Amino acid sequence: MWRNFPGQTREAYVQKIIITGANGVGKSHFAAALAAFRADVPVIHFDAIKLRSRWQQRPRAESDAALRQEIAKPAWILEGGPSLLPHAIGEADALVWLDPPNRVRAWRLATRPWKYFGRTRPELPPGNVDWPWQQYRFALRSLRNTARFRSYIAQVIHNADGLRTWHCRCDADLNTVLDAWSQTGR
User: Fold this and answer.
1) pTM of the entire structure?
2) How confident is the model at residue 12 (pLDDT cuts 50, 70, 90)?
3) Which residues span the domain enclosing 177?
């Protein structure tokens, strides 16, 4: 769904777009869908920037510097959780907040480790293997923090001036964004 915030215009040319939301909302999948329309715009996976192998985090200064380098580029699709927002929102033209119902998220989080059982998901650096029980502990923690994620993202969006923003709760909302994105590359 399109939301107008002060200073926004619908006609803005979008070159830099953030896709955010809690774990299991489909950020990587939606980034790939956007990239299919605009092959000239690279996808940046925030997890690939901040993770080493075996789910170990890079030092914050190192990952912040790598993210700054990526968002300095003239065009990008940046996907990641809400922690990337303070670093990238000032550089973005648009933001897509993926926020499906909790039952959808829970199903995705429950099935994802089995889809990539013993392998690394394509958006992650090598060596970050999905093992179901490890991922389930993480998923439960994430589901418990849903209200906190939503509140934080809503606050960040509210304080962002001139940012084209979509809050997507269903497939129809996603299709609206895909249609708008496909038109900006022409």
Assistant:
1) 0.85
2) low
3) 2-100+147-184
